[in-house]
């Protein structure tokens, strides 16, 4: 068992040196990502939908951001970092520079209306429509 762990660790190290990752790649980010958001004592559920260079973000329990999904602008994924811009219903800008972790999670802070808002998102395996 220890041999397998060492072998896996060595393979992961080689891939990391070559600039590859065992987690999400640019092509793999398309889909629905869901998880909690936090801003001070407020929180809710965030749903991020990505499809290539486009997407939307919906946040429950955040009346300033809006009740409907907001379109994302300037969506990009490079060097394991997801970047996008959005504008809430209140006119406040959101700037996201979010690391995509090796386990496929997106966790980090975005700037929204001058405040740091934390997102902790995981890919949704399947979603009933």
> What is the residue-mean pLDDT, rounded to a whole number?
82
Structural classification: mainly beta
> Could you give a short account of the major beta sheet?
9 strands, antiparallel
Helix-strand topology string: HEEEEEEEEE
Task: Determine the fraction of residues in helical runs and give it as a percent range.
Answer: 10-25%
**Order of strands across the biggest sheet?**
4-3-2-1-9-8-7-6-5
CATH A-level architecture: Beta Barrel
Unreliable residue stretches: 3-26
* CATH topology name: Lipocalin
Distance between the termini: 41 Å
**CATH homologous superfamily heading:** Quinohemoprotein amine dehydrogenase alpha subunit, domain 2
> Count the strands?
9
Strand content: over 45%
Return the CATH class: Mainly Beta
Number of helices: 1
